[in-house]
Structure prediction request, 194 residues.
Amino acid sequence: MDHGLAPLAARLHAAPPSCGPVRLVAVDGHAGSGKSTFADRLADALGGVPVVHTDDLATHEELFAWSERFGAQILGPLSRGETAHYGVYDWVRGEFTEERALAPAPLVLVEGVGAGRRALRPFLTCLLWMELTREDSWERGQLRDGPGLSGFWSGWIPAERAHFAADASRPYADFLVHQGQMGYEVVVGPSGTP
Prediction:
């Protein structure tokens, strides 16, 4: 467990539910900003809560147009206290190849670019933003993915720019997450209160 995340974990556990019986927490930021790694560590600090990756709901044709799918397959059931079942997109085969079940746990994390979007915010207990510039994030992401995915990135970057221009998440973040050499620092965000 990352003990630096203990205060945030305690705060999230104490928050009221936001989606039926569930406290839904979004981890948003630019591609390559470290959302998945942070979400995994936060999930561990929260006692092993489930993590939904928006990459499982997005597709090649709908990089950001997954709000309706998310609403129907995840938000609807969770808000009723029911187990959600959602399709998982296979980025290699280019189709949805499996289905995952998501029980209405007391806490559920949602991570991905656009996880703090307008359509989801009314259902969120908390919105966390990975505080790394888009240029640094994209450079890190491209180094991680290697030259084989350079074509994907050439389409991704303008799509991400357009998404955040139309539906910015950072201004609504309750907390900003800074990744340092010794762990994470979580500070009050633009819309948060100390």
User: Anything to note?
Assistant: The chain has one domain: 3-68+106-188. Residues 150-166 form the longest helix (17 residues). The radius of gyration is 16 Å. The domain at 3-68+106-188 is CATH 3.40.50.300 (Rossmann fold).
